[in-house]
Records
---
Amino acid sequence: MRFSYYAYTPLRGAFEDFGIDWPSTGTAGGRYATVCEFVAGVREALLGEDLPVEDMIDAQSFLWIRWSLKAAPEEALTPETQAAALDPEVLARDLATAVLWPTDRARDLVRRAIRWRRLLFQGPPGTGKTFVAERLARLLTADEEERTELVQFHPSYAYEDFVEGIRPRVTGGAGLAYEVREGVFLTLVERAKEHPDDLFVLVVDEINRANLPRVLGELLYALEYRGPEHTFRLPYSGRETYVPENIILIATMNSADRSIALMMRQPGDGSATSSSNPTQTSCERGSKGMISASLPTLPSRVCRR
């Protein structure tokens, strides 16, 4: 058997133990082939020691036990190690515990967040949208504050606040100078570029209260088309940049707000949208990658994509 399923966390730990770089670049198929080749090599080595290894599953069991014994002392795990070894299954269980959800529903939300990198929670007030968004952000970033930002949109929020703009600065002699200053999102983008192996999360509360085309500007394109091959030019500084893959945007909006009609026409391209409702659950696929899903605070069925 040349190929087999594999468990991400122990296999990545095994790569580190053997001093091999984890295949973090390239296609998912290429990464899978590299991992299978590594496990096959471990199997051959174990067979050479006359150990009873029948297939690649047995070889992975050996790696799992070896990794578990090394990872057992919790004090030996640094925050960096924990961040690098985030397991979606562990995240799902932790989220389910934190927000009192069934594990299946939490697993579905974690899967969507990691795959789509854009989540939109919508629903009436009091259904836990912001609470779930903040809990999910903390889990995805291993509770590291420098990897999480939270902003709340309002009618006067602008592109200059979110991306970049010209801002006054007091100089010597009580004079004023003007400089181009990065907004909260662009600051997080630059931080994410410096740490490409870590996830960064921006939580935008009440996203529908702002004029989205005015606030997002080029991000209406850049949030969907990411990476250095999809650069765009910033209007104030004139420099080119891009949105890296390791940023997740989680937004919330109040469906009782009358401005929701405009909101529903704007951010749907390439986003995953979750509707919070205390009594029902719905899930549907919209245009250009939008996913609408209900994530109620009371137990209900898991949405299907």
---
Amino acid sequence: MLFAVTVGQLVDRVGARRPMLIATVVFIVATLTPWLWPHMAILYVASLTIGGSYMVFNVAFQHTVGGISAAADRIDNFRLAAVGYASSGIVGPLVAGALIERLSFELTYVALAVFPIATLIIVSRVRIPQTTAAQNDGKGLGTRGAIELMRVRPLRNLLFAGSLLDMAWDFFAFAIPVRGAEIGLKPSQIGAVLASFSVATLLIRILLPFITQPVRVWPLLMISTFATSGTFALFALSESALLMLVLAFVLGLCIGSTQPLILTEIHKSAPACRVGEVMGMRAAMIGFYQTGLPPVIGALGGVIGMGLVFGVMALLFAAGGGAAMRQWQRLSAERSLD
């Protein structure tokens, strides 16, 4: 989170291949470390290192997906990448859990290291084109960093709207187990609610090409944000496992549909030589929510109850939906003038 913007600037300057290779090697070493030294302190270090290397790889990867895509194909390529993210969110925990039961925690790390090792082989063999900035030895890069980029209004609005929906994802993952325990759901029921969300995100990303052609990004962001507000309001009132299962599915459809569109629009709005830096800004904003949201939500939930916290989030997303609607109306008015 702290170095995401710097990583993005590095990707802009040197290209994506070297950061991806270095990040993958570090990921492999960090994954194997708990097997070599199975201590709690090592787990903390490994978690921090794996998270940092994933962030580096992800910024470079998203930059590459947009950079090598023709404008007409970019959203489909981001959709395929999003299907990969959603699939890993379902398959990863299942594989890890099965390995832990059949092997041990230590040997599970060894087995899971197969995935980054395969990634290293693929990245080392695939030719990744240089970015615009790297081709020109970094020429054309601004000197004022994120502040300069945040003055680009369309880009700023996209980053805030996208990060708001990313926050909804993190809030849901943290709050549902707490809310479920609060109303007396069984662990299996809580797991089913979380799985319903994951299945919906995967399904909508597979179906996305059939529904995005006539839809622009801001109307979809508006609808998704308002729908997220509505589902959070119903979560605040619901004490039924079945209703929460349905709400989680609806929420997964809303949030899962937006990421490919947001990434595509970011590539269109960002200066060509600073796409990596913008991706780093997005990663930093997401990391801020992931780090700061759980303790804040946990503290609020302990004071007012998780049901009321869902109500507060519903109001926040209603305000976000209103902002998205105004942005859509502003862009529509500008197009009509043209």
